[in-house]
Amino acid sequence: MRHDYIPLKAETEGGELIVEPSEDALYEMITELTTPDNTFVIVEPDEDDPAWFASVSLLDDGTYEVEYRDTVRRRHQLSIGTDPDRIARDAVIWVADTARAHRALSGHQSLADF
Question: Has this prediction a pTM greater than 0.90?
């Protein structure tokens, strides 16, 4: 069976789960991060043992650590941000680009689309 998309989920440390999160939903999840028990949100494929993810963690000083990791393509990026709106927008773009690349790598899409 051919999949035209990779199903995604966003989940916080506190247990909030959103399937197919929008930029607005991710923004809300980021702004609702608090210490000590809800300090991060992860966006990843909704599958066992996903090969890539984006995460946002609230740091003690109120800034956010943003991590993008793709083990298949051997990519890793780590940065610090202060603007939840910008972080959510950038994360959604990275997730979409990464999902598109993984569809191409798995043969679900032409490499010309990547």
Answer: no
